[in-house]
């Protein structure tokens, strides 16, 4: 957790619209599923809880919705603790992975349900249902049953139903998990559009890192009940707090080493084969500690492909290491080259599929280079 | 292939003939339990409706019919309510000791009826319930509940529990959720369970023998004493009426089941 909020009841602002304060959760009174979760969410923000399955992210969402009790700690909405409020009084919209549409009601009846519960007049319900159907472009489906709709259409109805009673907070629990890839991208776009148009506060749970990066204002990376880092997508990708985040978000090359010196914002790392490399010192462990040198595949280059008049020369590639080529993967727009270091670490280089993409012999010794800014020295736990 | 078909018909005959044979016999013009020569030669005079008329002229039979329906309906209402709530509770994934509780709730189906009846007799007598309508109704409700648990449990096995959470999240309190989301979806299971519970009570004679006084005589109980006291085809006429009622219920259950399946697959 990078920036834990101060505990206690400080005056609320729009920056602390939803607050999790020291929240812990255990199902069996022995093991904590969520260990000390702290998070402040701004009004209107789109925050994603990202993590592998079983990391506690869905549990946090269910505690906010009121479907799970909080073992200790508190959850506040707009400054009010909600831990003792029943879920049906919390006024929070929720979208489930498997849609959870009522199969015995038509689409219009599904949308009218939360309004009927709130005893809104029939004419007003009719007006809002039509408005809502138009919003998700399903106007002609009002009289159909959920069983007659496709997955994407069902999820659009579920989304519309979670918004129709104008909740200020909408929770989404892996809402696109059951859809195929094309539909998923289309729905990401749709959710983003609704969020921007309507301005609700969105808390989104997913294990898909691309989804998290493209949709969110901020992403909280969960691992084993704790938040490893909570930050904007570009910070997570470019300045990960630790090696778990660096590996979970995007692809990464990892070489074990030791921090030998930190000076003027630059860290010096000695690798297993004796090579000295320099990196930025963001989140770098102290001098003398073991570390993991991480380099994104797109920041690593094959030295022989860089000619003197190449644009890349404007960036100085200070570091280099000797590696033997093992194999390459043709992806289409890019090509991935795999190398092995003498110390046994495997490296991957991602190159655009253009005239620079080299042809290499298996086992050929090659120099790989990268810039100081292209790598990071992060923690190594062994 | 031929042999297999023959066997199938033989099995069907084995099951059905004892039931079907009473139908023509109940129209016997003579007060016997056997086919007369006139009946075998299809002489119209050998048949009559007098035993059916007898049912409705005999106070004992009328009381028995009234009792059967009254006790059956009351027991069904209790069994359906108890069984439905038990099944919903047992379907909750966080419920501890699910299997043990389920086995205990279903035990009245497995334990020989005579043992249950004897136990009830001693227990209900202590409470002053033997020989009362309340006692018989409670006993029959206890026998019918397991059927409701089984059918509702089956209906709930395909039930998506996130629907309950969805309903609560949309602002509906638990009772509203029960009547508007859970109940419509498990209704086929509840109705077929209720029919089974009703038939159980309607057919039951052992518990009645132990617990019921002359006031609470039901149709089966009346048939039982009829067999000993006054052997005449009125019993057969009653039996035919029971067969017809049971058959109608079977058809109803099948219709409800098929309809429930259609709703679940979303093609109403």
UniProtKB/TrEMBL annotation, chain A:
The keyword ATP-binding applies. Pfam families: ABC_tran, TOBE_2. Residues 18-249 form the ABC transporter domain. GO terms for molecular function: ABC-type polyamine transporter activity; ATP binding; ATP hydrolysis activity. Its EC number is 7.6.2.11. The complex is composed of two ATP-binding proteins (PotA), two transmembrane proteins (PotB and PotC) and a solute-binding protein (PotD). This is Spermidine/putrescine import ATP-binding protein PotA. It comes from Neptunomonas antarctica. The gene is potA.
From TrEMBL, chain B:
Residues 65-253 form the ABC transmembrane type-1 domain. Its main location: membrane. Keywords: Cell inner membrane, Cell membrane, Membrane, Transmembrane, Transmembrane helix, Transport. Pfam families: BPD_transp_1. One of its GO terms (cellular component) is plasma membrane. The chain crosses the membrane at residues 7-27, 69-88, 100-124, 136-156, 168-186, 192-213, 234-256. It is found in: Cell inner membrane; Cell membrane. PROSITE patterns: ABC_TM1, THD_1. It is a multi-pass membrane protein. GO terms for biological process: transmembrane transport. It comes from the Bacteria. Belongs to the binding-protein-dependent transport system permease family. This is Putative spermidine/putrescine transport system permease protein. It comes from Neptunomonas antarctica.
């Amino acid at each position: 957790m990078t920036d834990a909020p101060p505990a206690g009841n400080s005056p609320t602002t729009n920056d602390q619209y939803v607050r999790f304060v020291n929240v812990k959760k255990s199902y069996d009174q022995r093991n904590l599923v969520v260990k000390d979760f702290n998070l402040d969410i701004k009004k209107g923000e789109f925050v994603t809880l990202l993590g592998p399955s079983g990391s506690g992210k869905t549990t946090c969402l269910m505690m906010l919705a009121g479907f799970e009790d909080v073992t200790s700690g508190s959850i506040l909405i707009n400054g009010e603790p909600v831990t003792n409020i029943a879920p049906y009084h919390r006024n929070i919209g929720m979208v489930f992975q498997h849609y959870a549409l009522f199969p015995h009601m038509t689409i219009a009846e599904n949308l009218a349900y939360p309004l009927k519960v709130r005893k809104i007049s029939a004419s007003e319900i009719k007006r809002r249902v039509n408005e809502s159907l138009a919003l998700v472009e399903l106007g002609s489906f009002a009289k159909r049953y959920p069983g007659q709709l496709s997955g994407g259409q069902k999820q659009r109805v579920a989304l519309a139903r979670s918004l129709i009673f104008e909740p200020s907070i909408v929770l989404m629990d892996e809402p696109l998990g059951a859809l195929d890839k094309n539909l998923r991208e289309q729905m990401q776009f749709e959710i983003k559009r609704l969020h921007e148009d309507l301005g609700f506060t969105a808390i989104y749970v997913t294990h898909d890192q691309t989804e998290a990066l493209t949709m969110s204002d901020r992403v909280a990376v969960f691992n084993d009940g704790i938040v490893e880092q909570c930050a904007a997508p570009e910070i997570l990708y470019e300045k990960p707090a630790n090696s778990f985040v660096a590996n979970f978000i995007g692809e990464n090359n990892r070489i074990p080493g030791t921090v030998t010196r930190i000076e003027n914002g630059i860290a010096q790392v000695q690798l297993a084969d004796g090579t000295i490399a320099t990196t930025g010192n963001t989140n770098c462990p102290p001098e003398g500690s073991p570390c993991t040198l991480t380099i994104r595949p797109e920041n690593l280059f094959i030295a022989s492909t860089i000619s003197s008049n190449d644009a890349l020369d404007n960036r100085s590639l200070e570091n280099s290491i000797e590696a033997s080529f093992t194999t390459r993967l043709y992806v289409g727009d890019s090509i991935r080259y795999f190398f092995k270091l003498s110390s046994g670490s495997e490296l991957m280089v991602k190159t655009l599929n253009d005239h620079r993409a080299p042809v290499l012999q298996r086992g050929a010794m090659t120099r790989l280079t990268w810039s100081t800014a292209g790598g990071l020295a992060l923690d190594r736990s062994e | 292939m031929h042999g297999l078909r023959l066997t199938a018909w033989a099995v069907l005959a084995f099951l059905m003939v004892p039931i079907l044979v009473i139908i023509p016999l109940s129209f016997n013009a003579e007060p016997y339990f056997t086919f007369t020569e006139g009946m075998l030669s299809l002489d119209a005079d050998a048949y009559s409706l007098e035993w059916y008329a007898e049912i409705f002229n005999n106070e004992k039979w009328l009381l028995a019919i009234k009792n059967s329906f009254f006790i059956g309906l009351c027991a069904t209402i209790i069994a359906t309510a108890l069984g439905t709530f038990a099944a919903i509770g047992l379907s909750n994934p966080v419920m501890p000791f699910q299997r043990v509780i389920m086995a205990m709730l279903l035990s009245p189906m497995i334990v020989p009826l005579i043992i249950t009846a004897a136990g009830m007799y001693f227990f209900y007598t202590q409470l002053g319930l033997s020989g009362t309508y309340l006692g018989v109704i409670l006993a029959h409700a206890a026998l019918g509940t397991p059927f409701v648990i089984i059918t509702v449990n089956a209906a709930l096995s395909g039930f998506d529990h996130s629907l309950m959470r969805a309903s609560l999240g949309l602002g509906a309190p638990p009772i509203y959720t029960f009547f508007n989301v859970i109940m419509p979806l498990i209704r086929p299971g509840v109705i077929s369970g209720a029919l089974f519970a009703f038939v159980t009570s309607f057919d039951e004679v052992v518990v009645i023998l132990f617990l019921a006084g002359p006031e609470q005589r039901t149709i089966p109980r009346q048939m039982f004493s009829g067999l000993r006291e006054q052997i005449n085809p009125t019993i057969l006429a009653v039996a035919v009426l029971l067969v017809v009622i049971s058959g109608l219920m079977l058809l109803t259950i099948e219709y409800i089941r098929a309809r429930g399946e259609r709703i679940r697959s979303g093609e109403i």
